[in-house]
Specification:
mainly beta
């Protein structure tokens, strides 16, 4: 490392290289790794930095000024004193003010920067830059920032020369102080512009707006959030409660409480089963992505494949079987009774379509069953059970090999629908109480599940008729709601 061109305690210049040079006025040399100094004669001193420390944190002190020998940030530290720091005594709002007199010590137009640092948390608060200061001239950097801290913190000032490809020295004379601020004079009024998602429960909700720093409470419909994190002055991430009344999202700071224009809704929980069938090709396991996390068991030679998918990374490929390709233990989640429901999914035939049982339930002890299936005879697609067979069906469907079809079976009050690619294929009116079949829900079963077939995005929704007129099929993977 070389320190060259120091000409006195008010106007020298320093560069960093492989050796060290010094002149009159240098009172101290400090290096983060420690150093030894030897008089080389001729106005030169040789400095050896311990452990090959590249000068990180090094300083040359000349009188009351401190010169940082580094291109990276180093703390401001007046000669003979500890680093320049203040202690914020407790939680609250503060105005921080720092005034630095700086001098570029290498050449004209050095880019000198300073920043306030939360030393306790190793977090930057604000950075300023001088633009450029001609060599030998003095300039000032002013740092002024209102901040909120949740507990006592140590604040410091750090400085650097950001000029590329050159070592640096910065002469510093500085002050640092704080003023405690009252809520009325300092804290901006919070404002909520949006939040997502718009329903719960127990959802991770991102709240956006302004003046969110220092938020002390977040509520959903008047109920406290389970937890929340202030990500920035414009964003909070909060976990909605498990139970609450529909209502606005509110946030509270020392300046007051702000509420959203729209309400956050109790999570409807419509999605009872959601099978994305994403995963590694060849995998023989999959998971339910609804909040109910039903156990899914694959069988009948079926496995995930990345060769085909409607959305996502994979789909479930059938190998040709009269046994189910997927089974889910019976649940009240698909005991529909007389209520509204929707079952929708994507399906692709890779070869000439044969009899295909999309889904079914069978209780062997009583013979109770229900199923939704395709039969190439007359192009029949229908849903039925052993109480009313069929419930809703039609003929004339002729699938194209290699095309992904979106199927939807819908009940809205006493009206039933089958949609194929968003177009109504069948409808019926029937005030039927569906049997609560005590058998497993199966993809396949009863009839055949042909080989070279694929299913994706299988979803059961209870309590909602998602479509009652023609619609544009989904353009992305489903999300639970």
């Amino acid at each position: 490392m070389r320190l060259s061109g120091i000409g006195g305690n008010s106007g020298g210049a320093v560069t960093v290289a492989d050796e060290a040079t010094s002149v009159a006025g240098v009172t101290e040399l400090h290096f983060a790794g420690g150093a030894s100094v030897a008089d080389a004669g001729g106005g030169r001193v040789d400095v050896t930095v311990a452990g090959g420390d590249g000068g990180a944190g090094a300083e040359v002190r000349m009188g009351s000024q401190s010169y940082a020998i580094t291109g990276t940030y180093a703390p401001v530290q007046p000669a003979g004193q500890a680093p320049l720091r203040i202690e914020l005594p407790s939680a609250g709002w503060y105005t921080l003010a720092a005034l630095l007199s700086v001098q570029a010590g290498v050449s004209a137009n050095d880019d000198i920067r300073a920043k306030l640092v939360n030393v306790t948390d190793s977090a930057d608060i604000v950075e300023v830059r001088n633009g450029s200061i001609a060599a030998g001239d003095y300039g000032q950097l002013v740092l002024l920032q209102d901040i909120y801290v949740g507990a006592a913190k140590t604040i410091g000032v750090w400085v650097r020369n950001a000029t590329a490809s050159r070592g640096s020295v910065v002469g510093i004379q500085s002050t640092l102080q704080y003023t405690s601020l009252s809520a009325a004079s300092s804290v901006p009024t919070p404002y909520i512009s949006s939040f997502s998602p718009t329903s719960g429960p127990s959802a991770a909700v991102v709240i956006t707006g302004t003046g969110l720093t220092g938020v002390t409470a977040v509520k959903f419909g008047g109920t406290d959030a389970v937890s929340f994190t202030v990500d920035s002055d414009t964003q909070i991430t909060a976990t909605s409660p498990a139970s609450f009344t529909d209502g606005p999202v509110t946030v509270t700071t020392a300046a007051g409480t702000a509420g959203s224009v729209s309400s956050f809704a109790q999570f409807a929980g419509f999605t009872k089963l959601l099978l994305h069938f994403d995963g590694s090709s060849g995998a023989t396991t999959t998971t339910d992505s609804s909040i109910y996390a039903h156990t899914v068991t694959l069988g009948g030679g079926a496995a995930l494949t990345s060769a085909q998918s409607a959305f996502g990374s994979a789909s479930l490929a059938g190998a040709g079987s009269t046994t189910p390709v997927a089974q889910i233990p019976d649940s009240e989640d698909w005991a529909f009774g007389t209520g509204d429901f929707t079952v929708d999914f994507w399906f692709r035939w890779g070869s000439t379509p044969g009899i295909t049982n999309f889904f079914s339930q069978v209780y062997e002890e009583t013979g109770t069953y229900q199923q939704f299936a395709y039969n190439p005879t007359a192009g029949h697609v229908g849903f039925g059970n052993n109480i009313s067979e069929p419930t809703v069906d039609n003929t004339g469907f002729s699938p194209t090999v290699g095309h992904w079809y979106h199927f939807a079976l819908v009940r809205n009050d006493n009206t039933w629908y089958i949609f194929i690619d968003g177009i109504q294929f069948a409808t019926a009116s029937m005030g039927l109480t569906l049997p609560d079949v005590a058998g497993s829900l199966c993809l396949g079963g009863i009839w055949n599940w042909p080989s070279n077939t694929y299913v994706d995005e299988f979803r059961i929704s209870k309590g909602v008729a998602r479509w009652t007129t023609n619609f544009i099929p989904p353009v992305m993977a489903h999300a639970a709601d």
